[in-house]
C-alpha cells in the first residue's frame, strides 16, 4: 500500500518484487496485483443490481470516469 500512497486516482498493475516470482505457477504475471484507486459512488438499483461510479476528485461535472454494473442473473 505504500507504493500507492502518491496515487489519488488511476489503475494499473503493481510489479512483482525482485526474487518473489517463481511460485507454484512459475509465472510472474500470475502474481501481479491489479489495482483501481479513486473516489467511488455506490448505488443499489434493486435487490439484484448494483453499480459503482468512479468520479473525479475535482468534480468536473463531465460525468463518471468509469462505471461498473453488477446484475444478478
Automatic annotation (TrEMBL):
InterPro entries: MIZ1-like_pln. Pfam families: DUF617. GO terms for biological process: hydrotropism. It comes from the Eukaryota. This is Uncharacterized protein. It comes from Triticum turgidum subsp. durum.
Amino acid at each position: 500500500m505504500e507504493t500507492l500512497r502518491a496515487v489519488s486516482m488511476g489503475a494499473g498493475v503493481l510489479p512483482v518484487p525482485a526474487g518473489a516470482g517463481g511460485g507454484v505457477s512459475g509465472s510472474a504475471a500470475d502474481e501481479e496485483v491489479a489495482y483501481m484507486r479513486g473516489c467511488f459512488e455506490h448505488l443499489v438499483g434493486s435487490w439484484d443490481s448494483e453499480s459503482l461510479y468512479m468520479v473525479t476528485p475535482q468534480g468536473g461535472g463531465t460525468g463518471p470516469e468509469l462505471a461498473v454494473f453488477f446484475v444478478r442473473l
